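Sorry to interrupt, but I need a hand with the structure work. Could you add the entry underneath, on a fresh line?
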Amino acid sequence: MKDFETHPHAKNMLLYARDATESRKPWIRWQFRPDISGLWRDCFTHPRWHKDLEYRRKIKTHVVNGFEVPAPEGKPPPLGGYYYVADPTADYFCEKIMWDGDDFDMQYLDRGLVFMTEQAAVENAKAMCHLDPYQAAPKL
């Protein structure tokens, strides 16, 4: 007997179904991209859930110095979990820190500097420096 194999987008399909119970146009909350090197594009109708495409819910964004970048976290990460602080003074534009809920953690959260991914923290820190967060670094 062959092992049961789930659809590659099954988890996202479930989230989309939940969105469909809340909205007559659930696709406006979703994006797709044709391959890993491509840009995310907004869905304009129900996703087809093609196996060669990636799908995700749209991420929340905000504008920093004219650049639209991922929005910071509004809630604390789980105790003992890691997060990234957008830091324009750091060599790589961010610092990875374990959340223990101390005054420093809460200050970073209150100031909108806490991100769950390194990429989001780096993009924000670059935007703080008026650098295009989506432009590749120049080769030396």
In short: The chain has two domains: 10-58, 62-128. Residues 3 and 10 are 16 Å apart (CA to CA). The chain has a mean pLDDT of 91.
